[in-house]
């Protein structure tokens, strides 16, 4: 066993799998912060994934988080808040670079040349889902709670969400992005964000088993080897019917009627009426009532359109959107209200959906003129 820990926020380990092969493990190690991604963690992961990709002896990479509470609760938005609020009215190069680096990492996982197993237990939100969505083999457990709650802090579902939410049936991705509704394990399996349901207590057994598999050093063969192993674990207690139930599946017709709305305002009106007859929708109605009106309008534009963009085009467009958010007041204000001062009383600008102007929405979909070249043009 060869352990490496040059940075304690991310721990790397390589386990001997026989026949000259190794299984590599990357653990997010910020348990108290629910393994939220800092810029340091992103850069360390990028460098290590790049190095492992070049090695013929590495046959599989495992992504997991420290502790039981979360795989990853998102990006380090407190750090982003500090970066945005120390530059005054000027753009924050640090904040904008954070998103460019994060999206490059997510893209790396989507296009990784080896099997990537993501152990997505506990809270998986925002940037955590960005890591998980691109993995080739995604495990959810009975503890998994998956969500994209960005509109509550003046952002939008990013990290490739235009791709993985945009392809969901019945515009369910649009519903999730607007309402911040959390997906349970059964929802993730149905919607294609999870591939295997395994008991959370089986984590170490699963990880230990990876060194016993008949790895071939060839991508297709190794994908199948890993899939068979995970199916064997899935056949245990975690496969019971109750854990596979999906409230989103059961309500897909109602959600489709909601998302048929031409505008966000109409969607809100329909959602409020729906919540009166089905309490399950009450969370979404409350979340939208407190969310940034501009973010809601941007998300509606983002996810109600053509979902057929490539993953590269998605990250390039989302970076433009993220840069726009760092340069507008709502993002910093949302973080302040929810996570810094915690008064839960954000002063949004504009304050209502009616006051949102078309030019404010459109400004999110093009990089500012001061960018001579797109930072992700080479994806």
How are the SSEs placed, and which strands pair?
Elements: E1 2-7, E2 10-18, E3 21-28, H1 39-53, E4 58-65, E5 70-72, H2 77-85, H3 93-110, E6 116-120, E7 123-125, H4 127-133, E8 137-140, E9 145-147, H5 161-164, H6 172-179, H7 185-191, E10 196-197, H8 203-209, H9 219-234, H10 241-244, H11 247-250, H12 252-259, H13 264-277, H14 282-290, H15 293-304, H16 311-326, H17 329-340, H18 358-362
Parallel strand pairs: 3-4, 4-6, 5-7, 6-8, 7-9, 8-10
Antiparallel strand pairs: 1-2, 2-3
Helix pairs in contact: 1-3, 2-3, 2-17, 3-4, 3-16, 6-15, 13-14
Features:
379 residues, alpha/beta, seven-stranded mixed β-sheet, 18 helices, disordered N terminus
Please describe what this structure looks like:
The protein has 379 residues and is an alpha/beta fold. The protein is 46% helix and 13% strand. It has a 7-stranded mixed β-sheet, sandwiched between helices.
């Amino acid at each position: 066993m060869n352990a490496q820990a040059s940075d304690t926020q991310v721990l790397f380990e390589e386990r001997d799998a026989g026949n000259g092969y190794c299984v590599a493990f990357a653990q997010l190690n910020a348990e108290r912060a629910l393994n939220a991604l800092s810029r340091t963690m992103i850069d360390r992961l990028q460098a290590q994934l790049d190095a492992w990709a070049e090695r013929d002896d590495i046959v599989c990479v495992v992504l997991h988080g420290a502790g039981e509470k979360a795989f990853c609760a998102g990006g380090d938005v407190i750090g982003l808040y500090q970066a945005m609020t120390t530059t005054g009215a000027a753009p924050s190069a640090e904040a904008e670079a954070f998103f460019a680096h994060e999206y490059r990492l997510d893209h790396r996982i989507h296009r990784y040349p080896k099997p990537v197993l993501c152990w997505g237990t506990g809270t998986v939100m925002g940037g955590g889902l960005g890591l998980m969505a691109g993995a080739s083999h995604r495990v959810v457990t009975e503890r998994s709670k998956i969500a994209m709650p960005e509109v509550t802090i003046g952002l939008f579902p990013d990290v490739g969400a235009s791709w993985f939410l945009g392809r969901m049936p019945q515009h369910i991705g649009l519903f999730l992005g607007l309402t911040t509704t959390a997906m349970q394990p059964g929802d993730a399996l149905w919607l294609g964000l999870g591939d295997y349901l395994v008991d959370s207590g089986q984590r170490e057994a699963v990880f230990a088993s990876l060194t016993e598999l008949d790895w071939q050093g060839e991508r297709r063969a190794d994908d199948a080897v890993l899939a068979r192993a995970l199916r064997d674990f899935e056949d245990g207690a975690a496969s019971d019917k109750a854990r596979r139930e999906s409230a989103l599946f059961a309500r897909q017709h109602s959600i489709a009627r909601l998302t048929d709305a031409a505008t966000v305002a109409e969607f809100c009106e329909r959602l409020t009426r729906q919540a009166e007859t089905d309490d399950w929708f009450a969370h979404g109605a409350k979340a939208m009532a407190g969310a940034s009106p501009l973010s809601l309008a941007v998300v509606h534009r983002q996810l109600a359109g053509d979902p057929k963009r490539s993953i590269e085009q998605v990250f390039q467009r989302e970076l433009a959107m993220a840069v726009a958010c760092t340069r507008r007041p709502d993002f910093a204000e949302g973080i302040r209200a929810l996570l810094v001062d915690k008064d839960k009383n954000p002063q949004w600008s504009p304050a209502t959906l009616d006051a949102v102007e078309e030019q404010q929405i459109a400004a999110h979909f093009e990089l500012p003129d001061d960018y001579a070249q797109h930072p992700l043009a080479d994806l």
